[in-house]
Sequence to fold (424 residues):
Amino acid sequence: MTSLVQESLDNKVIVVGAGAAGLMAAGQAALQGAEVTILEKMHQPGIKLSITGKGRCNITNALPVSEFSKFIKNNYKFLKYALHSFSNQDVMDFFEQMGINTITERGYRVFPATGKAADIVNGLIDWNKKNGVRIITHSPVVALIMENNKIAGVKTGRVSRIPEKIYKAYRVIITTGGAAYPSTGSDGDGYKLAASAGHNIEQVRAALVPLITGNFIAPRLQGLSLKNTAVSIFIDGKKIAERFGELVFTHFGLSGPAIISISRYAVEGLNANSEVVISLDLKPALDDKQLDSRLLRDLNEKGKQQFSNLLKGLLPRKMIPVCLELIKIDPSRKASQINSEERKRLRVFLKNLKFNITGYRPFSEAIVTAGGVNIKGINPKTMESRLIEGLYFAGEVMDVDADTGGFNLQIAFSTGWVAGNSLF
Ligand SMILES: Cc1cc2nc3c(=O)[nH]c(=O)nc-3n(C[C@H](O)[C@H](O)[C@H](O)COP(=O)(O)OP(=O)(O)OC[C@H]3O[C@@H](n4cnc5c(N)ncnc54)[C@H](O)[C@@H]3O)c2cc1C
Fold:
């Protein structure tokens, strides 16, 4: 390893937060010859990383990087340089070189082949240690030390018997994450630190989050999960987006991948006091006409059966009473007695089951944070602050966020990589 910097105080780098971006930035900075310390507030590094992708860690997405613009909802242009400098292929190669093979699944989602997020976390920690990075846990950074618009170090707060401490540094990289899932340590501290350096903070809000519904349907179906459902969102009557996949009914409303990935539109709509409606198409493979023919055929063929019996072929068992209640058909009626108006009501239930969205769940249940450190104050080619020399940002603390599918971790890795390689 060649050292690009002379041995001196000018060599000291502090990384604030040992998440995806911090671990990448720190290891890269150490490879450049820096003396790197990561200060992590929690008792161990990478807690959020270890629960990503339901414990399997969807590290990136294998689509061409040029297509990421469709999935990065906020400030894609700002991220473009970083995404091309350390691309999805680079992320896969990086982990493969560590001996962690990857697999690509549905939706081009990339996971470690072992299916264990812990392998990614441990791989990153070991790589950092091998590069000489010190990781100090139980060390919440509470203040930045700045002199003449230059970074000079950080101050950590007291944690039980560990006293507060000053760490002098020539470069500081803030990788504290967003405000989603604060139990993992990412609770919005980075915004305060950035604001103390004069950075503007874009309003912070939950972006990928379960939704609260206003009618009785979801609580009655609590626990039921539907696959292959088309989910559409309407804001003030206008269709804004559609997703296809799995959803789950909960005691408060709707969750699951298809809902989470469409939720940002709901949050924006609700925050703008608009009417937000989610519509479920439970039979997306059939258009209205095809579905009507299928219903007619079933009703004719099984005319002597009770109508509720016929529904068993169309709906999960748990949904049948709810369906009957909504379409107002007596379950004991014979299938042959169902008239065209009633058939239409069933068709609407199957193709356009509507939910008024009245709210969204708190940050504690959100996957990512929209908003954060305004990107105008950050140089996209280095991730350095345009206000304070030697101060850098990477990862979710910035006003960047994306859909599910591995894009958020790719953002963290790419921006961490750029920051770590741009310090000298
Ligand atoms: C349940 C869940 C599942 C997810 N699954 C995926 C997925 O599969 N794929 C994907 O792409 N994205 C996923 N995400 C999103 C992804 O985890 C984040 O976007 C990503 O971790 C952000 O990386 P980061 O390094 O910026 O922040 P984080 O990974 O959140 O790390 C920030 C670190 O900073 C520390 N910290 C905070 N404040 C301080 C302080 N003052 N002093 C010291 N340390 C501090 C925190 O303790 C934390 O360790 C998921 C998120 C959640 C909540």
Observations:
- DSSP finds 13 helices and 21 strands in the chain.
- The pocket of flavin-adenine dinucleotide is lined by residues 16-22, 39-42, 47-49, 51-53, 57-58, 140-141, 175-177, 180-181, 185-186, 189, 367-368, 395-397, 406-409, 412 (CB under 6 Å).
- The longest strand covers residues 238-249.
